[in-house]
Structure formats: structure tokens, C-alpha cells
Specification:
Distance between the termini: 67 Å
Oligomer: single chain
Radius of gyration: 24 Å
Number of strands: 5
Helix content: 55-70%
Structural class: mainly alpha
Shape: globular
Bound molecules: zinc ion
């Protein structure tokens, strides 16, 4: 049996060479299958996939920990160009083989549904289009990542300029905002053309798959079995009715606190408390200790998971020269462990990010017992419930009294900012989502950028109010240029909105029954991808519902909590 030689860790293998994995794929493809040995075949394939995926994950982690090491970059490129595409083709062949078998295993129902969907949607003609789209996506990154200008004698890019939007001096942030908008508008024609090229290719892909439009394709491609475009529209309407007015109230409060006549786009990011920014910790050890205390208070078992990550060096949290930007949590499938990568500098955002990523990490721990890799493949809409709920569940323990980082007043400030952010996000999410529904169901009209601008503008009017953009109409109507998801991952955004509604319900439940809410949260995570999206929500104690009544209830709760916290400052 070849599979008795399958490595049980990635330490001893060369993950850059396809030859490392190929014999196992070949054996699976050739093995005689019958009713008795199919499960063993699935188990072997699953173990092989774990090895391939963990290899890819670790190569990526190592590269992002040290971007100056050319050997690590080369290993990454070898994997991406050589191993990953061949593994995809080999997996596709095994999938096709599996789908001809009569597999009746209860725990394979949903994984099989997903595979059947992928196999049905697959078109050979779409493969080169996908490669082409990936190149255009890279063009977007290059164009926007390359935007920079002189600022007080120093060259600054958009990220660096964005920091000035928090400057207490209004003239500084106004100048920064205008500088940023000028940069974006300088790329207006380029970005229009890029998007139209992408739109054409995406329409071609849905044609090839015999679907009426690219929206129908995207919904299938993203495995959206639990909701339809109609449900998205219901969500948009509920946001317009229940959340937009609450967002306006937040802006109004901000306007008063800043003593301004009108709030302008350069005023929305500034802190109104007139106190210096929170400085919760210094160095990785302090961040880990404080977070461990908080998570222990949430649930001792979850705290133990986090302690395990610290002991096994699965946390790399501090920024340093040569480290890639951003933060993520990735899964090491063979070890059944998560890895968290971050660029901490000692600010509250870092604490918030770590609690978020810890939620993702707990998903990995809770699903470790599931026998087959496809069962750990949970939908994005629920993956973010795991992480966003953890931010909410941990919030009461941010104070030093509970082992955390803050005085009661500092903690209240951090929590208010978080809760206000949740409210402000939803109307913006609705604009991004509704815009794309229009584009991909009106592709002819959308090929004219002026129509895209007008549609974005009308949606902005509908969902976003409280900030005065007058005099900057061009910047306002081209807002869709500034959302990378619209270019790179069409329709991928509403997931965050849905997850937020789920997480708010988990938190609501915890206010009256803490132990019960956390128990349900953990049980729901442990189901992995073996249940449907509504079933996962239900297991977590939440309804998969996005109507006005639901949002009204949650917004009221958030506003009430903000008021209580304001009294503690
Ligand atoms: Zn996340």
C-alpha cells in the first residue's frame, strides 16, 4: 500500500516539487474502487490533500514573515506555478471519479453537493479567462499600489496619506483627503478601462457556462445555495430602513463633538474624544498575555487553545522590517492547528484584530476531529461569524480588572468605536453589493463608465447620509474605484454583512445567557462544513434572516449599549 508511506508531517518533504505528491494522486486515480473500500479511498485522498494544503500554507507563511528572502519567495513561486495548478487538475479528475460513485456517507452529503456544483460549473474555455482576469487584478493592484505623491518633501502612498485622516488638525486631514482623491482621479480612465475589460471577460465566462448573466455564475461559483439575489435585495432594504438612520445619528453626534456646521468626508475618521490614542501593550509577549487573560475569561477551553498557539509558536504578531503587510489566520491541515500572522505596533486596532483572528483560529481547533478535509470547508458567511462573534464576546473583558488592557473608561471608548463601526459598515456594504447587482444584470449599460458612476452615486444617496460631499462630486461618483473587491472578487462582500448580523445575535444571546451562547457558538463551529448555512446559524443560536425586523432589533441593542458605554467615559 503506497499510502502507508504518506508522510505524516510536512517537515521531511520537498513541497516545491510536484513529484512529491504525484505518485499518490496517480495511485488514487488508478485504485480499484468498490462499495467496501470507497471510504478508505476518501480518507487517503483527504490525508493527501491535507499535506498539499499545509505545504502551501507554510510556504506562504514563511514568505510573508520574511519578504526579503529570495529563496522563500522562489519556494512560493514554485508552489504556485508548479504544484498548485497540477494539484487542482488532479483533484478535478478525482472529483469526477468520485461523482460517478454511489457514495451514501451521511457526512459527505454537503461536500458532495459542493463538488457536484464545481464540476457542473467547470468549463475548459473559462480557464484562460480566469488566468487573464488574475492578470488584470494584478494590474489594479499595481496601479493603485503605485499611487504616490510628494507630501511635505516626502514621498507618500495612499496608506501613508490615509494616516493623516485621523489628524486632529482639520486642515491637515482636509489636505490629505484632497490629495488622495486627486491621486485616485488621476487614474480614473485607467481604472474605468480595466473594469470594462474585466466585465467583458466575466460576461464571456457566464455565456460559456450557459447561464443568463454573470451574477448567476458568481452565485454558483461562490456556492450560494442558501440565498438568492432577491434575499440580497431584502437585506439592502432592511439596511436602508433600520441602519441608515442610525448611521446618520452617529455622524450627527460626531459633527456636534467636533463643533462643526457640516461633517465633510475628511472628518469621518478622526477621534472625537480629545484624548491620546489608546496604547494597550508593548511587544508581542504583553499582547499575548493580555489576550490570553481575556480569552480565558470568555471560556477556559478557548483560552487553552490560544495558550497552545503561543506554546507551539503559531503566533507572529509584531511588525518588523521585511515582514509582509496585513494580518491573517491560516490553517495547517496536517497538524490541525491555525497560524496567526499580524503587524502589531501596540495600538487598539491590533488587539481587535487578534481577537478577530482568534475566532478564526478557534474554528480550526473545533473542527480538528472531523475525519475528512472537505468537512472542514465551512462557508465564508459563517467563518466570519466565528471571528466577529469573538470580537463581541471578548469585549466585556478588555479591562485591566479582567486581565485585559484598559481602564473602564478606555475600554468603553474602544467598545463604542467598535460598535459604531459595525453600524457604519452595513450601509456602505449595501452600496457595494447593490452596485454589482446592477452592473452584472445590465452589462450593456455598465460598459459605459458614466452609467456606473451615476448608479454608484444614486446608491450612495440612498444608503449613505450625514456627510456633505458637495464640491467633490467626481470623487463621490467614482467611489467604486476605491473598493478593491469590486475589481478582484465580484459579489464577495455581502458575506461580511451577513456574518455581522449572525455575530450580533450571538452577542445578544450572551447578554442574557452567557454560558449558553458560548456553548452554542462552540458547537456551531465544530460542525465545520457539514451543515447548511442556515443550519450553522441556527446551531450558533442565530437566525439566517436579514429583514427589517431583525436589523431594527439589533440596531436598537447596539445603540442602547453605546449609550450605556458613553456613561462610563
Ligand atoms: Zn475574518
Amino acid at each position: 500500500m503506497l499510502f502507508s508511506t504518506l508522510p505524516t508531517t510536512i517537515d521531511a518533504i520537498d513541497p516545491r516539487r510536484w513529484e512529491t505528491f504525484e505518485p499518490y494522486y496517480t495511485e488514487l486515480q488508478q485504485r480499484d474502487l468498490n462499495e467496501v473500500n470507497t471510504r478508505q479511498w476518501l480518507t487517503d485522498w483527504s490525508k493527501l490533500s491535507e499535506l498539499v494544503w499545509e505545504s502551501g500554507a507554510m510556504i506562504y507563511v514563511k514568505k510573508s514573515l520574511d519578504t526579503t528572502d529570495t529563496e522563500k519567495e522562489q519556494a512560493f513561486l514554485d508552489y504556485v506555478n508548479e504544484v498548485a495548478p497540477k494539484a487542482r487538475v488532479a483533484d478535478q479528475a478525482l472529483k469526477e471519479r468520485l461523482l460517478t460513485l454511489d457514495v451514501q456517507d451521511d457526512d459527505m452529503v454537503l461536500p458532495l453537493r459542493n463538488m457536484r456544483n464545481e464540476a457542473d460549473l467547470f468549463r475548459k474555455e473559462n480557464v484562460p479567462l480566469q488566468t487573464e482576469l488574475a492578470k488584470l487584478d494584478n494590474e489594479y493592484d499595481k496601479e493603485t499600489g503605485g499611487l504616490k505623491t510628494e507630501w511635505d518633501g516626502e514621498e507618500k502612498n495612499l496608506v501613508q496619506l490615509g494616516l493623516y485622516l485621523k489628524d486632529p488638525d482639520r486642515t491637515v486631514r482636509e489636505r490629505a483627503w484632497k490629495t488622495m482623491m486627486d491621486l485616485w482621479l488621476g487614474s480614473r480612465e485607467t481604472l474605468n478601462k480595466l473594469y470594462m475589460d474585466m466585465l467583458g471577460m466575466r460576461c464571456q465566462m457566464s455565456d460559456n457556462a450557459n447561464l443568463p448573466d454573470y451574477r448567476a455564475y458568481a452565485f454558483r461559483d461562490r456556492g450560494r445555495f442558501a440565498y438568492t439575489p432577491e434575499d440580497c435585495f431584502t437585506f439592502h432594504e432592511a439596511i436602508e430602513t433600520a441602519v441608515t438612520p442610525a448611521a446618520r445619528r452617529i455622524y450627527e453626534k460626531k459633527r456636534k463633538a467636533l463643533k462643526l456646521e457640516v461633517l465633510r468626508p475628511w472628518d469621518v475618521d478622526v477621534d472625537t474624544s480629545n484624548t491620546p490614542p489608546l496604547k494597550p501593550y508593548e511587544g508581542q509577549a504583553e499582547l499575548i498575555q493580555g489576550s490570553l487573560n481575556i480569552l480565558n475569561s470568555v471560556d477556559p477551553e478557548l483560552g487553552r487553545y490560544f495558550a497552545t498557539m503561543a506554546e507551539e509558536e503559531l503566533l507572529d504578531l509584531e511588525t518588523r522590517p521585511g515582514k509582509a503587510l496585513g494580518g491573517y489566520c491560516t490553517t495547517l491541515h496536517v497538524r490541525k492547528r491555525p497560524f496567526i500572522f499580524m503587524n502589531g505596533v501596540g495600538i487598539h486596532d491590533n488587539v481587535q484584530t487578534l481577537l478577530h483572528e482568534a475566532g478564526h483560529a478557534f474554528h480550526v481547533f473545533e473542527t480538528a476531529e472531523l475525519p475528512l478535509i472537505w468537512q472542514t470547508d465551512y462557508p465564508m458567511e459563517f467563518a466570519e461569524v466565528a471571528s466577529m462573534s469573538m470580537e463581541m464576546l471578548a469585549a466585556p473583558y478588555l479591562t485591566k480588572e479582567n486581565g485585559g488592557f484598559y481602564t473602564a473608561s478606555e475600554s468603553a471608548r474602544a467598545r463604542i468605536e467598535h460598535l459604531e463601526g459595525l453600524i457604519l459598515f452595513l450601509p456602505y456594504m449595501a452600496v457595494v453589493d447593490a452596485f454589482q447587482h446592477w452592473v452584472y444584470t445590465n452589462p450593456e449599460a455598465a460598459l459605459n463608465a458614466a452609467n456606473c458612476d451615476a448608479t454608484w452615486d444614486a446608491l450612495w444617496d440612498r444608503f449613505m447620509s450625514g456627510v456633505d460631499w458637495s464640491g467633490f462630486e467626481d470623487a463621490r461618483m467614482t467611489g467604486w474605484h476605491r473598493k478593491p473587491h469590486i475589481f478582484s472578487s465580484p459579489f464577495y462582500y455581502i458575506e461580511y454583512g451577513m456574518a455581522q448580523v449572525g455575530a450580533l445575535q450571538v452577542w445578544r444571546n450572551s447578554l442574557t445567557d452567557r454560558a449558553g451562547a458560548i456553548e452554542a457558538y462552540r458547537q456551531a463551529l465544530a460542525l465545520g462544513g457539514t451543515k447548511t448555512l442556515p443550519e450553522l446559524f441556527a446551531a450558533a443560536g442565530a437566525e439566517f434572516r436579514f429583514d427589517t425586523a431583525m436589523l431594527t432589533e439589533l440596531v436598537e441593542l447596539v445603540e442602547r449599549t453605546i449609550e450605556e458605554l458613553e456613561a462610563q467615559i
